[in-house]
Amino acid sequence: MIKLEIVTPEKKVFDEEVDSVTVPTASGEVGIFPNHAPLISSLKPGVLSYTRGITTEKMVISGGFVEVSANKASVLANVAETTEDFDTALVKQERDAAEKIVNSWKGTEEELEAELEKLERANARLQLVGR
């Protein structure tokens, strides 16, 4: 078992033992299992999943870091959401707006990064609800 702790600036979202966890890191998805090698990585917007027995739960995370050591995975995320935390129709509108902005971009690279992160987060939310 792995102790999984998910924390945002507002609250502790999750703190329980799990069999495995998968996180979206800057270099790709990483599967974390018991006795995993120590790891520190930045997170990108995407779907975090964890398994307990035959049940797999998922949530959208965005920004932050994951640290793994001694059968403990600590996820410090800017955002951690389940499907109950957002309106799918509104997320589709946000995604469409972000796509329009990105496709006709004329601002700075830093501002573009912020818009791309919004787009990635919207896509992750839609992935979570299966659309």
Q: How would you describe the overall organization of this protein?
A:
- This protein is of the alpha+beta class.
- 27% of the residues lie in helices and 46% in strands.
- Strands 1, 2, 3, 4, 5, 6, 7 and 8 form an eight-stranded mixed beta sheet that branches.
- Helix 1 (88-103) runs antiparallel to helix 2.
- The longest helix has 20 residues, at 109-128.
Q: Extract low-pLDDT stretches.
A: none
Structural class by SSE content: alpha+beta
Overall residue-averaged pLDDT value:
87
Summarize the amount of helix as a percent range: 25-40%
Strand content: over 45%
Topology order in helix (H) and strand (E) letters: EEEEEEEEHH
The profile of the biggest β sheet is: 8 strands, mixed
Q: Radius of gyration, Cα only, in angstroms?
A: 15 Å
Number of strands: 8
Number of helices: 2
Topology of this structure?
Blueprint: E1 2-7, E2 12-18, E3 20-25, E4 28-32, E5 39-42, E6 46-52, E7 55-69, E8 72-81, H1 88-103, H2 109-128
Parallel strand pairs: 1-8
Antiparallel strand pairs: 1-2, 3-4, 3-6, 5-7, 6-7, 7-8
Helix pairs in contact: 1-2
